[in-house]
Amino acid sequence: MNTTTASTGLQSLSISQRIIAGSLAILLGLTLLVGTGFAGDFRLHNGAHDTRHAMGFPCH
Amino acid sequence: MIRNLFAAALLAALCAGLVTAALQHFRVTPLILHAETFEGEGGHSHGAEPVAADHEHAAGTPQHEHDAIATTAAEPEEWAPADGFERTAYTTLATVLAAAGFALVIGAVSMFAGVPITFANGFLWGIAGFVTFSLAPAYGLAPELPGMPAADLGARQVWWVGTALATGAACLLLAKTRAGWAFAVAIALVAIPHIIGAPAAPDEPSAVPAHLATEFAAITLGTSLVFWLVLGTVFGKLNDVFAARSSVPNGVPA
């Protein structure tokens, strides 16, 4: 059993559990990426300005 | 298990985000600050054009005054973090939040595709993330410093997202199967955004010295590679740790 411990995290999940977890993760993840990398609001733009340039997001 | 995914993703993002923020503070931000001193000197400046000098009023425009200082200063009414500690703090926060975003996105891809992120394959996830979100977009849209001429922002954002989606799909496809057709499709997915072509920057002179721009491009790509390798590896390690821990009550590991 010891050899399977590394993969139990994903393989022990049912399809529906994976879809729920994945949907929640992608929703929150994309919200964070849009906020930090893409949003046009000047407060978000100016606050994240150097990060956008450093991470290669289009800025300005 | 959902909690495990989020905990692993967010802890890995904190770790990778802080490492990256440190690199940004010492190697990237100084170049941005240096470039900003040239902003407005060359052919391109954003939002800082002195509008007072030569514009005409339509008939019936109410009487108003042009404050020369306010209109020539860069976006005087917009909030921006003050240089120094505040700016560093915001950049660090934004980098950690972006890291969390990237971690949750690859965590979601792992869930949807059924490809686990482990310590053993974490660096491969990292390389795929780097190729998808840094290298492929940079191949068309080179990392830009403030003050450099650039095409329309919306068009560049669309191309960036499209390129990341296509390249990421190619990586995922090859992770799932190494069939001949998969290589053909993956090569097409990677190549198509570059055949379409990124929005071209206008051919304007820039006051930003070339050596700053080349240094910036190399350092940001290198920093992104470090970010992705740390993120993928730590994410995988934490997944292994959480999986082993939650499997212990059922069957004690030998």
Order of helices and strands of chain A: HHHH
Main pleated-sheet profile of chain A:
none
Q: Most extensive chain contact?
A: A-B, 48 and 72 residues
Shape designation of chain B: globular
The secondary-structure class of chain A comes to mainly alpha
What is the helical fraction of chain B, as a range of percent? 55-70%
Assembly state of the chains shown: heterodimer
Count of separate DSSP helical elements of chain A = 4
The portion of residues assigned to helices of chain A is: 55-70%
**What number is the mean pLDDT of chain B?**
87
Main beta sheet of chain B: none
| Tally of DSSP β-strands of chain A | 0
Question: What report would you give on this structure?
Answer:
The complex is a heterodimer of chains A (60) and B (254). By secondary structure, chain A is mainly alpha-helical. Chain A has four helices and no strands. Chain A has helices at residues 8-11, 15-38, 42-47, 49-55. Chain A is elongated, with a radius of gyration of 18 Å. The termini of chain A are far apart. Residues 43-57 and 65-73 of chain B have low confidence and may be disordered. Helices cover 66% and strands 0% of the residues of chain B. The two termini of chain B are 23 Å apart. Chain B has one domain (2-42, 82-247). The longest helix of chain B is centred in the last third of the chain and has 38 residues, at 210-247. Chain B has helices at 2-36, 68-72, 85-113, 122-140, 153-176, 180-196, 210-247. Chain B is an all-alpha fold and 254 residues long. Chains A and B meet through helix 1, helix 2, helix 3 and helix 4 of A and helix 1, helix 3, helix 4, helix 5 and helix 7 of B.
